[in-house]
Amino acid sequence: MTSTPQSSYLDLPDNLPIPQDDGAADHLQGKKLDSIILSATNTSKIDLSKLSGTTVVFIYPMTGVPGVALPDGWDDIPGARGCTPQACSYRDNYNELKTFVDNLFGLSVQSSEYQKELKDRVELPYEILSDSDFKFANSLNLPTFEANSMKLLKRLTLIIKDDVIIKKHYPVFPSNKDVNWVLNSFFA
User: Fold this and answer.
1) Is residue 79 within 8 Å of 21, Cβ to Cβ?
2) pTM of the predicted model, to two decimals?
3) Are strands 127-130 and 103-108 parallel, antiparallel or unpaired?
4) What tens digit of pLDDT does each residue of 82-120 get?
5) Which residues have C-beta within 8 Å of that of residue 43, sequence separation ≥ 6?
């Protein structure tokens, strides 16, 4: 499969493979979070298990950097493409989300320095958390895949109430519509 030309990094090619539910996130609903400290793009340390209220965490594989090639075959991996459009859809709906959500974060295994490039470039109003040591991912047994010898997280969104996962969205596709699932979750 080859990618179709895109007019911008916010667009998704029309021919992306659709991820199938492999059951790798079935165990998450109702799971209590362990206390794990994550670094945020603003240099703060966040323990999701200590946050009160409703928290949304959208987990994504990795964002690209303009001018740097994505891993080989990236568009052929179901669910891999679309991290920047997903992050921007949360940005564009941030004010509406804040009426329902106390905390919003993106999360990937890239370093905070790497993630900060995206946050600054597309002006995200929320922080991105780094799980570069996979402590959070391993504690929840989150689904992963490999690309170019990198272990990455599959795209997944969690709605957490206090320290318990109350809803999960997996697989997420298309990535830029994930925010709609979150918003609709509050009307279901």
Assistant:
1) no
2) 0.93
3) parallel
4) 999 999 999 999 999 999 999 999 999 999 999 999 999
5) 112
